[in-house]
């Protein structure tokens, strides 16, 4: 994986984490649900990417 792709993935991860954290401070149940959903999607993506 080249550095440009790694930088893009890092940028997306940081932005998503920032947005989820902001929503979690405003509306804790919604932020928790978003966090769990994103974690589950990331886990599925990581599992499918290994194959």
Structure overview:
The chain contains two helices and no strands. It has helices spanning 3-26, 28-50. Helix 1 packs antiparallel against helix 2 (28-50). The longest helix has 24 residues, at 3-26. The protein is flat, with a radius of gyration of 13 Å.
Q: Count the DSSP helices.
A: 2
* Main sheet specs: none
- H/E order of the elements? HH
Tell the overall outline: flat
Structural class: mainly alpha
Distance between the termini: 16 Å
Number of strands: 0
Radius of gyration: 13 Å
pLDDT averaged over residues: 85
Beta content: under 5%
Uncertain stretches: none
Query: Portion of residues in helices?
Result: over 70%
Helix-strand blueprint:
Layout: H1 3-26, H2 28-50
Helix pairs in contact: 1-2
Summarize the structure.
It contains 2 helices and no strands.
Task: List the defining traits of the structure above.
51 residues; mainly alpha; single chain
